[in-house]
Amino acid sequence: MSKSNENLTTSWGAPVGDNQNSMTAGSRGPTLIQDVHLLEKLAHFNRERVPERVVHAKGGGAHGYFEVTNDLTKYTKAKFLSEVGKQTPLFVRFSTVAGELGSADTVRDPRGFSVKFYTEDGNYDLVGNNTPVFFIRDAIKFPDFIHTQKRNPKTHLKNPNAVWDFWSLSPESLHQVTTLMSDRGIPATFRHMHGYGSHTFKWTNADGDGVWIKYHFKTEQGVKNLATDVADRLASENPDYHIEDLYNAIEKGDYPSWKLCVQIMPLEDADTYRFDPFDVTKVWSQKDYPLIEVGRMVLNKNPENYFAEVEQAAFSPGTLVPGIDVSPDKMLQGRLFAYHDAHRYRVGANHQMLPINRPKVEVNNYQRDGQMRFDSNGGGSAYYEPNSLGGPAEAPESKQAAYSVSGVAESVAYDSEDHYTQAGDLYRLLSKEEKMRLVENIVGAMKPVESDDIKLRQIGHFYKADPEYGKRVAEGLGLPIPQEV
After folding, report:
1. Which has fewest Cβ within 10 Å: 282, 333, 383, 483?
2. Residue 141, pLDDT score
3. Which domains, from first to last, does the chain contain?
4. What residues act catalytically?
5. Which positions bind heme (predicted)?
Protein backbone atom coordinates (compact mmCIF):
# COMPACT_ATOMS: atom_id res chain seq x y z
CA MET A 1 0.00 0.00 0.00
CA SER A 2 1.52 3.29 -1.10
CA LYS A 3 1.92 6.05 1.46
CA SER A 4 0.40 9.44 0.67
CA ASN A 5 2.79 12.34 0.38
CA GLU A 6 0.21 14.67 1.92
CA ASN A 7 -0.63 14.97 5.61
CA LEU A 8 -4.28 14.72 6.64
CA THR A 9 -5.12 18.02 8.32
CA THR A 10 -7.85 19.62 10.34
CA SER A 11 -9.99 22.32 8.74
CA TRP A 12 -7.56 24.88 10.16
CA GLY A 13 -4.61 23.14 8.51
CA ALA A 14 -2.97 21.38 11.43
CA PRO A 15 -1.71 17.80 10.83
CA VAL A 16 -3.92 15.04 12.26
CA GLY A 17 -2.03 12.52 14.34
CA ASP A 18 -4.76 9.87 14.63
CA ASN A 19 -7.88 9.69 12.49
CA GLN A 20 -8.91 6.19 13.59
CA ASN A 21 -9.27 6.48 17.34
CA SER A 22 -10.93 9.04 19.56
CA MET A 23 -9.03 10.51 22.48
CA THR A 24 -10.29 8.88 25.66
CA ALA A 25 -9.65 8.86 29.38
CA GLY A 26 -7.98 5.46 29.59
CA SER A 27 -8.41 2.70 27.03
CA ARG A 28 -12.13 2.28 27.78
CA GLY A 29 -13.06 5.97 27.89
CA PRO A 30 -15.13 8.04 28.28
CA THR A 31 -14.23 10.21 25.30
CA LEU A 32 -12.60 13.53 26.05
CA ILE A 33 -14.07 16.84 24.92
CA GLN A 34 -10.51 18.01 24.33
CA ASP A 35 -10.36 15.85 21.16
CA VAL A 36 -10.95 18.87 18.98
CA HIS A 37 -10.42 16.90 15.76
CA LEU A 38 -13.29 14.57 16.70
CA LEU A 39 -15.54 17.50 17.61
CA GLU A 40 -14.75 19.29 14.36
CA LYS A 41 -15.48 16.18 12.27
CA LEU A 42 -18.83 15.53 13.96
CA ALA A 43 -19.90 19.17 13.95
CA HIS A 44 -19.09 19.55 10.27
CA PHE A 45 -20.83 16.27 9.45
CA ASN A 46 -24.00 17.57 11.12
CA ARG A 47 -23.94 20.52 8.74
CA GLU A 48 -23.00 18.82 5.48
CA ARG A 49 -26.45 19.22 3.94
CA VAL A 50 -27.74 22.57 2.81
CA PRO A 51 -31.54 22.76 2.64
CA GLU A 52 -32.71 21.02 -0.50
CA ARG A 53 -34.46 23.05 -3.16
CA VAL A 54 -38.19 23.45 -2.50
CA VAL A 55 -38.72 22.44 -6.13
CA HIS A 56 -36.26 20.78 -8.52
CA ALA A 57 -34.50 19.09 -5.58
CA LYS A 58 -33.41 15.97 -7.50
CA GLY A 59 -31.19 16.45 -10.51
CA GLY A 60 -27.95 15.98 -12.37
CA GLY A 61 -25.65 18.28 -14.29
CA ALA A 62 -22.70 18.62 -16.62
CA HIS A 63 -20.30 21.13 -18.12
CA GLY A 64 -20.09 21.95 -21.79
CA TYR A 65 -20.03 24.73 -24.33
CA PHE A 66 -22.31 26.68 -26.61
CA GLU A 67 -21.25 27.47 -30.18
CA VAL A 68 -22.94 30.11 -32.31
CA THR A 69 -23.97 28.78 -35.74
CA ASN A 70 -26.06 31.67 -37.07
CA ASP A 71 -25.55 35.43 -37.06
CA LEU A 72 -28.46 37.06 -35.21
CA THR A 73 -26.71 40.29 -34.22
CA LYS A 74 -29.45 42.26 -35.94
CA TYR A 75 -31.69 41.11 -33.08
CA THR A 76 -29.41 41.10 -30.01
CA LYS A 77 -26.21 42.75 -28.81
CA ALA A 78 -25.48 39.88 -26.38
CA LYS A 79 -21.73 39.41 -26.81
CA PHE A 80 -21.73 35.62 -26.50
CA LEU A 81 -24.01 35.51 -29.57
CA SER A 82 -22.00 38.07 -31.55
CA GLU A 83 -20.03 35.86 -33.95
CA VAL A 84 -20.55 32.59 -35.79
CA GLY A 85 -18.16 29.99 -34.35
CA LYS A 86 -17.86 31.74 -30.99
CA GLN A 87 -17.86 29.30 -28.06
CA THR A 88 -19.00 30.01 -24.51
CA PRO A 89 -18.49 27.62 -21.57
CA LEU A 90 -21.63 26.61 -19.71
CA PHE A 91 -23.07 24.40 -17.00
CA VAL A 92 -26.43 22.63 -17.25
CA ARG A 93 -28.62 21.17 -14.53
CA PHE A 94 -31.52 18.82 -15.32
CA SER A 95 -34.05 17.94 -12.63
CA THR A 96 -37.47 16.67 -11.69
CA VAL A 97 -39.83 19.22 -10.14
CA ALA A 98 -41.92 17.83 -7.31
CA GLY A 99 -39.89 15.07 -5.65
CA GLU A 100 -37.43 15.26 -2.81
CA LEU A 101 -33.67 14.85 -3.15
CA GLY A 102 -33.95 11.06 -2.85
CA SER A 103 -36.93 10.59 -5.17
CA ALA A 104 -36.89 8.57 -8.38
CA ASP A 105 -35.79 10.04 -11.70
CA THR A 106 -38.45 8.29 -13.79
CA VAL A 107 -41.63 9.73 -12.27
CA ARG A 108 -44.21 11.54 -14.40
CA ASP A 109 -43.17 15.13 -13.84
CA PRO A 110 -41.83 18.08 -15.84
CA ARG A 111 -38.04 18.27 -16.04
CA GLY A 112 -36.07 21.36 -15.21
CA PHE A 113 -33.67 22.43 -17.96
CA SER A 114 -31.35 25.17 -16.66
CA VAL A 115 -28.30 26.54 -18.49
CA LYS A 116 -25.65 28.87 -17.06
CA PHE A 117 -23.60 30.59 -19.79
CA TYR A 118 -20.27 32.00 -18.52
CA THR A 119 -20.12 34.96 -20.93
CA GLU A 120 -17.65 37.85 -21.23
CA ASP A 121 -20.41 40.15 -19.94
CA GLY A 122 -21.06 38.03 -16.86
CA ASN A 123 -23.26 35.00 -16.36
CA TYR A 124 -26.50 34.46 -18.24
CA ASP A 125 -28.97 31.90 -16.89
CA LEU A 126 -31.68 30.38 -19.02
CA VAL A 127 -33.91 28.61 -16.50
CA GLY A 128 -36.54 26.52 -18.26
CA ASN A 129 -38.28 23.16 -18.49
CA ASN A 130 -38.67 20.36 -20.99
CA THR A 131 -42.14 21.71 -21.79
CA PRO A 132 -42.96 24.95 -23.65
CA VAL A 133 -45.80 25.88 -21.26
CA PHE A 134 -46.53 25.76 -17.53
CA PHE A 135 -49.47 24.98 -15.22
CA ILE A 136 -50.11 28.54 -14.09
CA ARG A 137 -49.44 32.01 -15.48
CA ASP A 138 -49.16 34.20 -12.39
CA ALA A 139 -46.49 33.76 -9.71
CA ILE A 140 -48.99 34.51 -6.96
CA LYS A 141 -50.41 30.99 -7.51
CA PHE A 142 -47.04 29.23 -7.46
CA PRO A 143 -46.77 28.41 -3.73
CA ASP A 144 -50.29 26.95 -3.76
CA PHE A 145 -49.59 24.91 -6.88
CA ILE A 146 -46.38 23.45 -5.46
CA HIS A 147 -48.11 22.63 -2.17
CA THR A 148 -50.46 20.36 -4.14
CA GLN A 149 -47.47 18.50 -5.59
CA LYS A 150 -45.92 17.93 -2.17
CA ARG A 151 -47.06 15.77 0.73
CA ASN A 152 -50.28 15.96 2.74
CA PRO A 153 -49.31 17.64 6.05
CA LYS A 154 -51.45 15.16 7.97
CA THR A 155 -50.62 11.83 6.30
CA HIS A 156 -47.24 12.81 4.79
CA LEU A 157 -48.37 11.01 1.63
CA LYS A 158 -48.76 12.32 -1.91
CA ASN A 159 -52.26 13.73 -2.34
CA PRO A 160 -54.04 13.26 -5.70
CA ASN A 161 -57.10 14.98 -4.23
CA ALA A 162 -55.13 18.21 -3.85
CA VAL A 163 -53.48 17.84 -7.27
CA TRP A 164 -56.72 17.46 -9.22
CA ASP A 165 -58.71 19.84 -7.05
CA PHE A 166 -56.22 22.61 -7.84
CA TRP A 167 -55.98 21.74 -11.54
CA SER A 168 -59.75 21.51 -11.93
CA LEU A 169 -60.11 24.95 -10.30
CA SER A 170 -57.28 26.36 -12.44
CA PRO A 171 -58.31 25.63 -16.04
CA GLU A 172 -55.26 27.47 -17.37
CA SER A 173 -53.31 24.33 -16.34
CA LEU A 174 -55.02 22.16 -18.99
CA HIS A 175 -52.40 22.63 -21.72
CA GLN A 176 -49.56 21.58 -19.42
CA VAL A 177 -51.61 18.78 -17.83
CA THR A 178 -52.23 17.34 -21.30
CA THR A 179 -48.50 17.52 -22.05
CA LEU A 180 -47.59 15.96 -18.70
CA MET A 181 -50.03 13.07 -19.10
CA SER A 182 -48.90 12.38 -22.65
CA ASP A 183 -45.89 10.25 -23.61
CA ARG A 184 -43.65 13.28 -23.06
CA GLY A 185 -44.45 13.18 -19.33
CA ILE A 186 -41.62 10.67 -18.73
CA PRO A 187 -38.52 11.30 -20.86
CA ALA A 188 -36.34 8.25 -21.51
CA THR A 189 -33.27 10.20 -20.37
CA PHE A 190 -32.19 13.79 -19.87
CA ARG A 191 -30.45 13.47 -23.24
CA HIS A 192 -33.61 12.56 -25.12
CA MET A 193 -35.80 15.55 -24.33
CA HIS A 194 -36.17 19.06 -25.68
CA GLY A 195 -35.70 22.12 -23.48
CA TYR A 196 -37.57 25.42 -23.50
CA GLY A 197 -37.15 28.85 -21.97
CA SER A 198 -40.98 28.68 -21.77
CA HIS A 199 -41.34 32.40 -21.00
CA THR A 200 -41.23 35.21 -23.51
CA PHE A 201 -38.02 37.24 -23.32
CA LYS A 202 -36.84 40.35 -25.13
CA TRP A 203 -33.76 40.68 -27.29
CA THR A 204 -32.33 44.15 -27.92
CA ASN A 205 -29.74 44.99 -30.58
CA ALA A 206 -26.94 47.56 -30.58
CA ASP A 207 -29.29 50.23 -31.95
CA GLY A 208 -31.78 49.72 -29.13
CA ASP A 209 -34.34 47.93 -31.30
CA GLY A 210 -36.09 45.00 -29.70
CA VAL A 211 -38.02 41.82 -30.47
CA TRP A 212 -39.88 39.31 -28.32
CA ILE A 213 -38.36 35.81 -28.38
CA LYS A 214 -38.90 32.26 -27.15
CA TYR A 215 -36.09 29.70 -26.70
CA HIS A 216 -36.20 26.08 -27.96
CA PHE A 217 -33.43 23.54 -27.31
CA LYS A 218 -33.93 20.66 -29.75
CA THR A 219 -32.24 17.43 -28.71
CA GLU A 220 -29.94 15.99 -31.37
CA GLN A 221 -30.32 12.53 -29.84
CA GLY A 222 -34.00 12.44 -30.82
CA VAL A 223 -36.98 12.51 -28.46
CA LYS A 224 -37.52 9.26 -26.59
CA ASN A 225 -39.92 8.58 -23.73
CA LEU A 226 -40.57 5.79 -21.23
CA ALA A 227 -43.73 3.71 -21.03
CA THR A 228 -45.36 4.02 -17.62
CA ASP A 229 -44.70 0.40 -16.62
CA VAL A 230 -41.03 0.66 -17.58
CA ALA A 231 -40.70 3.94 -15.67
CA ASP A 232 -42.31 2.38 -12.59
CA ARG A 233 -39.93 -0.59 -12.74
CA LEU A 234 -36.91 1.67 -13.08
CA ALA A 235 -38.09 3.80 -10.16
CA SER A 236 -37.64 0.79 -7.89
CA GLU A 237 -34.63 -0.80 -9.57
CA ASN A 238 -32.60 2.34 -10.19
CA PRO A 239 -34.08 5.59 -8.86
CA ASP A 240 -31.01 7.47 -10.18
CA TYR A 241 -31.46 6.18 -13.73
CA HIS A 242 -31.38 9.57 -15.49
CA ILE A 243 -28.43 10.89 -13.50
CA GLU A 244 -26.50 7.68 -14.16
CA ASP A 245 -27.31 7.73 -17.88
CA LEU A 246 -26.07 11.31 -18.31
CA TYR A 247 -22.88 10.62 -16.39
CA ASN A 248 -22.09 7.40 -18.26
CA ALA A 249 -22.77 8.89 -21.69
CA ILE A 250 -20.33 11.74 -21.08
CA GLU A 251 -17.71 9.45 -19.51
CA LYS A 252 -17.62 7.26 -22.63
CA GLY A 253 -17.45 10.26 -24.97
CA ASP A 254 -21.04 10.12 -26.21
CA TYR A 255 -21.53 13.84 -25.66
CA PRO A 256 -25.19 14.91 -25.71
CA SER A 257 -26.05 17.96 -27.78
CA TRP A 258 -28.95 20.27 -28.52
CA LYS A 259 -29.63 22.79 -31.27
CA LEU A 260 -30.81 26.12 -29.87
CA CYS A 261 -33.48 27.91 -31.89
CA VAL A 262 -35.62 30.96 -31.20
CA GLN A 263 -38.98 32.21 -32.31
CA ILE A 264 -38.90 35.94 -33.00
CA MET A 265 -41.95 38.21 -32.75
CA PRO A 266 -41.93 41.91 -33.67
CA LEU A 267 -42.79 44.02 -30.63
CA GLU A 268 -45.96 45.41 -32.19
CA ASP A 269 -47.38 41.92 -32.81
CA ALA A 270 -47.85 41.48 -29.06
CA ASP A 271 -50.85 43.80 -29.22
CA THR A 272 -52.65 41.88 -31.96
CA TYR A 273 -51.62 38.22 -31.69
CA ARG A 274 -54.52 35.84 -31.11
CA PHE A 275 -53.06 34.71 -27.77
CA ASP A 276 -51.36 36.90 -25.20
CA PRO A 277 -47.67 36.27 -26.03
CA PHE A 278 -46.69 36.76 -22.38
CA ASP A 279 -49.05 34.04 -21.09
CA VAL A 280 -46.78 31.08 -20.24
CA THR A 281 -49.70 28.63 -20.56
CA LYS A 282 -49.74 29.34 -24.32
CA VAL A 283 -47.34 28.67 -27.20
CA TRP A 284 -46.70 30.72 -30.31
CA SER A 285 -47.54 28.86 -33.49
CA GLN A 286 -44.39 27.95 -35.40
CA LYS A 287 -46.35 28.64 -38.59
CA ASP A 288 -46.64 32.25 -37.45
CA TYR A 289 -43.12 32.53 -35.99
CA PRO A 290 -40.83 29.81 -37.39
CA LEU A 291 -37.84 28.48 -35.50
CA ILE A 292 -34.57 30.25 -36.30
CA GLU A 293 -31.31 28.49 -35.47
CA VAL A 294 -28.97 30.23 -33.03
CA GLY A 295 -26.34 27.66 -32.10
CA ARG A 296 -25.47 24.30 -30.62
CA MET A 297 -24.98 23.18 -27.02
CA VAL A 298 -22.69 20.24 -26.22
CA LEU A 299 -22.12 18.65 -22.80
CA ASN A 300 -18.65 17.10 -22.60
CA LYS A 301 -17.49 17.09 -18.96
CA ASN A 302 -18.94 15.59 -15.81
CA PRO A 303 -18.72 17.38 -12.45
CA GLU A 304 -15.76 16.50 -10.26
CA ASN A 305 -17.87 16.92 -7.13
CA TYR A 306 -21.66 16.67 -7.10
CA PHE A 307 -22.26 18.91 -4.09
CA ALA A 308 -19.86 21.66 -5.12
CA GLU A 309 -21.13 21.84 -8.68
CA VAL A 310 -24.65 20.40 -9.02
CA GLU A 311 -26.11 20.96 -5.57
CA GLN A 312 -24.64 24.44 -5.09
CA ALA A 313 -25.35 25.59 -8.65
CA ALA A 314 -27.72 28.55 -8.42
CA PHE A 315 -29.78 29.59 -11.45
CA SER A 316 -32.16 32.52 -11.82
CA PRO A 317 -34.01 33.99 -14.81
CA GLY A 318 -32.90 37.34 -13.38
CA THR A 319 -29.26 36.55 -14.16
CA LEU A 320 -29.15 38.58 -17.38
CA VAL A 321 -26.59 40.14 -19.71
CA PRO A 322 -26.90 43.22 -21.96
CA GLY A 323 -28.92 42.40 -25.05
CA ILE A 324 -31.29 40.05 -23.25
CA ASP A 325 -34.18 41.53 -21.27
CA VAL A 326 -37.38 40.32 -19.63
CA SER A 327 -41.01 40.63 -20.68
CA PRO A 328 -44.21 41.45 -18.75
CA ASP A 329 -44.89 37.70 -18.33
CA LYS A 330 -46.38 37.62 -14.81
CA MET A 331 -44.89 34.24 -13.99
CA LEU A 332 -41.46 35.38 -15.11
CA GLN A 333 -41.75 38.62 -13.14
CA GLY A 334 -42.30 36.65 -9.92
CA ARG A 335 -39.42 34.29 -10.67
CA LEU A 336 -37.03 37.23 -11.03
CA PHE A 337 -37.33 37.71 -7.27
CA ALA A 338 -38.04 34.19 -6.03
CA TYR A 339 -35.06 32.37 -7.52
CA HIS A 340 -32.34 34.68 -6.30
CA ASP A 341 -34.06 34.81 -2.92
CA ALA A 342 -34.17 31.01 -2.71
CA HIS A 343 -30.41 30.84 -3.27
CA ARG A 344 -29.73 33.47 -0.62
CA TYR A 345 -31.70 31.35 1.85
CA ARG A 346 -30.44 27.94 0.76
CA VAL A 347 -26.77 28.53 -0.06
CA GLY A 348 -26.09 31.98 1.34
CA ALA A 349 -25.88 35.67 0.56
CA ASN A 350 -22.57 35.13 -1.24
CA HIS A 351 -23.63 32.14 -3.35
CA GLN A 352 -22.53 33.95 -6.53
CA MET A 353 -18.91 33.72 -5.33
CA LEU A 354 -18.86 29.92 -5.27
CA PRO A 355 -16.77 28.48 -8.12
CA ILE A 356 -19.75 26.93 -9.95
CA ASN A 357 -21.64 30.24 -9.90
CA ARG A 358 -18.73 32.66 -10.19
CA PRO A 359 -18.54 34.56 -13.50
CA LYS A 360 -15.45 34.11 -15.64
CA VAL A 361 -15.08 37.91 -15.66
CA GLU A 362 -14.07 40.20 -12.80
CA VAL A 363 -16.92 41.22 -10.48
CA ASN A 364 -16.91 44.85 -9.36
CA ASN A 365 -19.61 46.06 -7.00
CA TYR A 366 -20.22 47.50 -3.55
CA GLN A 367 -21.78 44.46 -1.91
CA ARG A 368 -19.90 43.66 1.27
CA ASP A 369 -19.89 41.24 4.19
CA GLY A 370 -22.46 38.49 4.77
CA GLN A 371 -21.97 34.88 5.79
CA MET A 372 -19.13 32.98 4.13
CA ARG A 373 -17.55 35.99 2.45
CA PHE A 374 -14.33 34.23 1.49
CA ASP A 375 -12.54 36.73 -0.73
CA SER A 376 -10.88 40.02 0.29
CA ASN A 377 -14.36 41.57 0.78
CA GLY A 378 -13.38 44.59 -1.28
CA GLY A 379 -10.30 45.27 0.81
CA GLY A 380 -9.96 48.95 1.61
CA SER A 381 -11.51 50.18 -1.64
CA ALA A 382 -14.54 52.43 -1.93
CA TYR A 383 -17.60 50.76 -0.45
CA TYR A 384 -20.35 53.15 -1.60
CA GLU A 385 -21.54 54.71 -4.86
CA PRO A 386 -21.44 57.33 -6.21
CA ASN A 387 -17.94 58.14 -5.05
CA SER A 388 -15.05 60.35 -6.16
CA LEU A 389 -12.45 57.67 -5.47
CA GLY A 390 -12.42 56.03 -8.90
CA GLY A 391 -14.62 53.09 -7.92
CA PRO A 392 -16.62 51.11 -10.47
CA ALA A 393 -19.36 53.14 -12.13
CA GLU A 394 -22.52 52.30 -14.05
CA ALA A 395 -22.51 51.69 -17.81
CA PRO A 396 -25.58 53.43 -19.24
CA GLU A 397 -25.32 51.51 -22.51
CA SER A 398 -26.06 48.32 -20.58
CA LYS A 399 -29.43 49.44 -19.21
CA GLN A 400 -32.35 47.14 -19.91
CA ALA A 401 -34.36 48.24 -22.90
CA ALA A 402 -37.52 50.19 -22.17
CA TYR A 403 -41.03 49.15 -23.09
CA SER A 404 -44.22 51.10 -22.61
CA VAL A 405 -46.69 50.30 -19.85
CA SER A 406 -50.10 51.74 -19.11
CA GLY A 407 -53.18 51.13 -16.99
CA VAL A 408 -54.38 51.19 -13.42
CA ALA A 409 -52.45 49.49 -10.61
CA GLU A 410 -54.71 46.62 -9.57
CA SER A 411 -54.84 42.82 -9.37
CA VAL A 412 -55.96 41.65 -12.80
CA ALA A 413 -55.99 38.45 -14.80
CA TYR A 414 -54.75 38.00 -18.34
CA ASP A 415 -57.32 39.14 -20.89
CA SER A 416 -57.64 35.72 -22.49
CA GLU A 417 -59.74 33.10 -20.75
CA ASP A 418 -59.36 30.61 -23.61
CA HIS A 419 -57.73 27.74 -21.77
CA TYR A 420 -58.96 25.11 -24.18
CA THR A 421 -57.96 25.80 -27.80
CA GLN A 422 -54.28 24.95 -27.50
CA ALA A 423 -54.89 21.95 -25.23
CA GLY A 424 -57.41 20.66 -27.76
CA ASP A 425 -55.01 21.29 -30.63
CA LEU A 426 -52.35 19.27 -28.80
CA TYR A 427 -54.79 16.40 -28.23
CA ARG A 428 -55.78 16.33 -31.91
CA LEU A 429 -52.10 16.26 -32.96
CA LEU A 430 -51.57 12.97 -31.13
CA SER A 431 -51.75 9.63 -32.89
CA LYS A 432 -54.44 7.09 -32.03
CA GLU A 433 -52.01 5.19 -29.80
CA GLU A 434 -50.74 8.37 -28.11
CA LYS A 435 -54.33 9.45 -27.35
CA MET A 436 -55.01 6.04 -25.84
CA ARG A 437 -51.98 6.28 -23.54
CA LEU A 438 -52.81 9.88 -22.62
CA VAL A 439 -56.31 8.90 -21.51
CA GLU A 440 -55.00 5.84 -19.65
CA ASN A 441 -52.48 7.98 -17.78
CA ILE A 442 -55.11 10.55 -16.82
CA VAL A 443 -57.62 7.94 -15.71
CA GLY A 444 -54.96 6.15 -13.67
CA ALA A 445 -53.93 9.41 -12.01
CA MET A 446 -57.51 10.50 -11.27
CA LYS A 447 -58.93 7.22 -9.95
CA PRO A 448 -57.50 7.76 -6.44
CA VAL A 449 -59.28 11.13 -6.19
CA GLU A 450 -62.04 10.68 -3.60
CA SER A 451 -64.38 13.44 -4.75
CA ASP A 452 -66.53 12.90 -7.84
CA ASP A 453 -67.10 16.66 -7.94
CA ILE A 454 -63.39 17.21 -8.57
CA LYS A 455 -63.35 14.50 -11.24
CA LEU A 456 -66.41 15.92 -12.99
CA ARG A 457 -65.02 19.44 -12.91
CA GLN A 458 -61.81 18.24 -14.57
CA ILE A 459 -63.71 16.13 -17.12
CA GLY A 460 -65.52 19.33 -18.10
CA HIS A 461 -62.19 20.95 -18.94
CA PHE A 462 -61.11 17.99 -21.07
CA TYR A 463 -64.45 18.09 -22.89
CA LYS A 464 -64.16 21.80 -23.64
CA ALA A 465 -60.72 21.18 -25.14
CA ASP A 466 -62.09 18.37 -27.31
CA PRO A 467 -65.38 16.47 -26.84
CA GLU A 468 -63.74 13.14 -27.60
CA TYR A 469 -61.01 13.89 -25.05
CA GLY A 470 -63.58 14.53 -22.31
CA LYS A 471 -65.79 11.56 -23.23
CA ARG A 472 -62.92 9.09 -23.15
CA VAL A 473 -61.70 10.26 -19.74
CA ALA A 474 -65.28 10.16 -18.40
CA GLU A 475 -65.79 6.63 -19.70
CA GLY A 476 -62.51 5.52 -18.11
CA LEU A 477 -63.65 6.91 -14.77
CA GLY A 478 -67.19 5.58 -15.12
CA LEU A 479 -68.67 9.05 -14.85
CA PRO A 480 -71.03 11.08 -17.08
CA ILE A 481 -70.14 14.25 -18.96
CA PRO A 482 -71.17 17.17 -16.69
CA GLN A 483 -74.51 18.72 -17.72
CA GLU A 484 -73.09 22.25 -17.93
CA VAL A 485 -70.73 21.33 -20.81
Report:
1. 483
2. 95
3. 59-133+188-360 (2.40.180.10), 421-477 (no CATH)
4. 56, 129
5. 339
